[in-house]
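Standup, Tuesday
Yesterday: got the pipeline producing structure tokens again.
Today: sanity-check two examples.
Blockers: none.

Example 1:
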Amino acid sequence: MAKRKRRMKSGDFILVLITLGLVIFGIIMVFSASYYTSINKSGNPYSYLIKDTVWAMLGLGAMLVTATVDYRFYSKIAKPVMIISVILLVLLFTPLGEERNYATRWLGVGGITIMPGELAKPAAIIFTSWFLSRDPKIIKSLTKGVVPLFVLCGVYGGLIILQPNLSTAITVCIIIIGIMFAAGLNYIYLGGLVGVGALGICTLIIT
């Protein structure tokens, strides 16, 4: 048992190191690519570097906080989080939605703006994980496990594509399908999901 715990801790530590490495690498790449743009816009070559570093530190703090939360807590908020995220996506197509650069991806209330598409990512993770954790065998059922989550992919993907924001829609769908695959999704179902998704994307590009 102790050996198993050590392996789990080692695995978590490695995952954290990989994540931190990717974040640092991303900050450096953005700094390198935006150096002259930053000078032209603000006169300070480090403005993007400072901003990205601040956000990275805030993200690190959020990660440490969420890591201390009992995982059972997320099962209690899974449904409300999913419902709220879908409602926020729908609200984009009301007067609350703000259009920028021919895309309506932001909700603005009292000078505060949020991107529901970004909130859909953690919502998809929490809900899909909870849905599949209730019964390990549910992913083997086409009607009880695969179809409901495929419908969720369609709801999220459809609402986000309408903004339009194809990259975020693909990301959210990949998150859901990835969790399904990790839970033991049958390769045949996986192939069908990927095929339907690819067909839908091609149809959108053509039209």
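Example 2:
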Amino acid sequence: MSDEMRLQYPGLLREVLPSGTVRWRVRKAGDKKVRVLLNAGPDHPRFGEHYHAARAGIQLPPEADAPSAIKGSVGWLVDLYRAAMKDMQEQGHLHKATAHQRGQFLLWLASEVGEYSAAMPQSQLILLRDKKAATPGAADNFIKAVRAMYAWGTDRGHCKANPAAGIGKINRGTGATAWTTDDLLKYRERHPKGTMAHLALSLLMFTACRLGDVYRLGRTHEMQRNGVTWLDWQPEKRGSSRVRIPMLPPLQAAIRAQTIIGPTYLLTEHGKPFASKNAFGNKFADWTRQAGLAGLSAHGIRKSAGELLAMNGASQYEVMSVHGHSNAKTSEIYTAGADRDRLADLAMQRMTGVDW
């Protein structure tokens, strides 16, 4: 369950039964001992009603299947595309997290203008986007989800035009804030070598991998090349190139300092792998807050690693090889195979002398 959902729906509990079935409960407001079972999950159009009733200690009954949306309406197109996303996910063409995010935005779209014709004007879509302007990242992702749905729909003749095409971003930020040297020192002072928090920072800094990859890395990703230990993994992000980089001494030292060994390098307080990137992300956010660095993210460390490589003379393509990028926006040159390994080796060696 994401941080955004926890904030929006306090008291909401996600439970996984031994069968693998997921069910949702809600703590009654003012009495945490009372947990009301929900008969509608977060994907249900009336989830909000069920949630708020449960917070008051009332369990709403299951609802009969809602009538199908009117053919040619926005709600109809949303239903078709959500069904298609399930197929794309099963076929490996769409990541689970992407499908979930798009689904949430599209359910909101259906709740706002579901009865409108799918040929709604772009001005109406911009009005909906502006309702989310307080969170510009979410506003832009909403448009991105709608654009993807209409692109799918026009390809299949369900609609004639894409009203989301050409709508620009309102979030003009530069992305995650890169960690400074002082930030790194402050974190390490709070979380010394031997702690899981220190290992997390070391992995993020010396692999430059994303949140969705770092929690999965472990000894199964190690390989030996000419007596040197390398890490070899395929990033989860669709379209990313495989990454192979030598493991530098600071990272090896951080790994060896751990007293508990598991299937992954990063383990929970119970010695188990983190269940998901969100679970690890929540824990890493706790560690940054403990170090007085609230607001900084794991992705900011990836950005810092790239900047540090560049500052120490790494070329654009050396950085690409470490970060798993398939191409550069300003270039048509691709790097692959042994050349990527050579460039990654050169890039990582530029950080050999970093004090850790």
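Quick observation on example 2: The longest helix spans residues 136-155. The chain is about 45% helix and 10% strand.
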